[in-house]
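Re-run with default settings, no changes from the original entry. Doing this only to confirm the output is reproducible before filing.
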Amino acid sequence: MVFEFEVPYSPYATEATLAVGSRQRIAVKTQDSHDRALEAPSVRIERVVSSEPGVISVDSVEQNSFVVRAHAPGDVQLSVMSTVSTSGQTTVSDSLRVSAADATSARVSHGCPFEDAPAYLTRSTVDLRYTLLDGHTTLLGYGHYPVEVEGDTDASIVREVDEVGVLRVRTSRQAGALSLVAEDGEPLLEIAQVDEAQIERVEVGEPQSVAFRDELNFRPKLFTTQHRLCQAFPSAAVLTSTPDVCSARIVEDDASSSRLRVNVAIAAEGDCAWSLSLPNARQGEGLVSSHSFRVTRSGETQ
């Protein structure tokens, strides 16, 4: 069988070290005669047993994955029994070794790579990059966050997260600096928080050519006088003055991930004109960003 640790890197690892206090999901697949991994639902897990439940226990079992929880430093063997359905049903047993270690340090960095110090909107939920280490060894797992928000603030750490490498933070209701520190007080990261009223500028890339029946997605870049905003989803509205050619809408399902996205659907040839309005920008005066492009049947620029 193939055991895949669900992390943003190193798939198909057969060994891993978890941070004590964390959980980790492990997917189970099997291989065909050419050593190719077979996807679910070809595998159904029947049972998972830990050799040392006091070190790493089995938290839950689903059809083709299971979650383990690390309680103490040590090394365990996880025995997995599965039913494989290909041409028939076969019971397959296998095992993997998993270790647990105490985290000695944490690293937190910005979730947006475009600059060293972006700003985040107040009253929002943002994802930061997060790594736990034992010396120089990166530890896997989610749900263990030895990180605190420093000072008298209503900002908070969201601790019910099941994604490895993510530290989710709810920013404050007040603009200003937000400092994250380790449990021992060591500084980890300081981020800038700004109000929607501080947004001064919007940039939206213009398409070079658009064909009939295309569908475009725009992610506007938002700026204050000092910062570019990261993962920003401010109050916004869109309007099109050419409804026969195109329609525009804000994609609401991105609100949970705090990223503003505008979808423009093309219905006919002609000139498409749409605008994005941020009513709370520029100290409440509002900001309108207008855009237009030509739609042709072939998509060739005219």
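The CA atoms of residues 251 and 261 lie 6 Å apart. The chain has a mean pLDDT of 87.
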